[in-house]
Specification:
- The chain is mainly β.
- It is built from no helices and 19 strands.
- The strands form six sheets. Strands 3-4-5-6 form a four-stranded antiparallel beta sheet, with no helix packed on it. A four-stranded antiparallel beta sheet has the order 7-8-9-10, with no helix packed on it. Strands 13-14-15-16 form a four-stranded antiparallel beta sheet, with no helix packed on it.
- A hairpin with a 4-residue loop joins β9 and β10 (104-107).
Length: 192
């Protein structure tokens, strides 16, 4: 059913208009409170106040004429930066940074010697001026676009699979792995 909104008066969830039959894969909230949504129909910006949606797609869909400016349509993961730019990845693990103001997309599938398109991306998050990418086979990777040097940790002893992660306080990340939760300190590299 795409995206649903809870109606307090009717005491039930109602579909958001225009989102019926859209397969939503991920979403991230920007600094203005809009939801950026990855789906099989493309990348969309949903204004949570007006419920108006602006779609951005590639040329292989008929969703929105005029906004067919992305290199791909099937968006799997989304992460917003505070400056309004949006990271997203595809079903074949290509990694992109989209600037909706300039309507420009940069490809970050290959950064230095790291090929994200050879990995199985499971989650994206922008934190501490870096994009963090968790993977099913290669642990956690992160980089600053200005430096383009990828740092990584594969958490030996816990397994290479990081399904999801959350930024905590004082440079700590909580990572969901196949072997439980990992508490990782970005500054010291300690994990437990």
């Amino acid at each position: 059913y795409g995206i649903l909104q809870y109606n307090l008066i009717l005491d039930r969830f109602m579909p958001v208009p225009g989102w019926e039959r859209v397969h939503v894969s991920d979403m991230s909230e920007d600094s203005d409170g809009n939801l950026w949504v990855g789906s099989d129909e493309g990348l969309a910006c949903l204004n949570t106040q007006s419920l108006q949606t602006t779609w951005f797609t590639s040329k292989d869909t008929l969703k929105t004429a005029g906004n067919q400016i992305l290199p791909i349509t099937n968006i799997k993961h989304v992460a917003c930066q505070p400056d309004g730019k949006v990271w997203f990845s595809s079903e074949v693990n290509q990694l992109y940074l989209f600037d909706p103001q300039k309507r420009v997309t940069q490809n970050f599938s290959e950064v230095g010697n790291t090929r994200f398109d050879f990995m199985n991306i499971s989650h994206l998050k922008f934190y501490d001026n870096s994009i963090f990418v968790s993977t099913i086979n290669d642990g956690l990777l992160w980089f600053k676009t200005s430096e383009k040097e990828v740092k990584s940790n594969n958490f030996e002893g816990y397994g290479y699979t990081i399904h999801q992660f959350q930024a905590g306080r004082d440079s700590f990340l909580w990572l969901a792995s196949n072997n439980g939760l990992i508490r990782y300190n970005l500054k010291t590299g300690e994990q437990n």
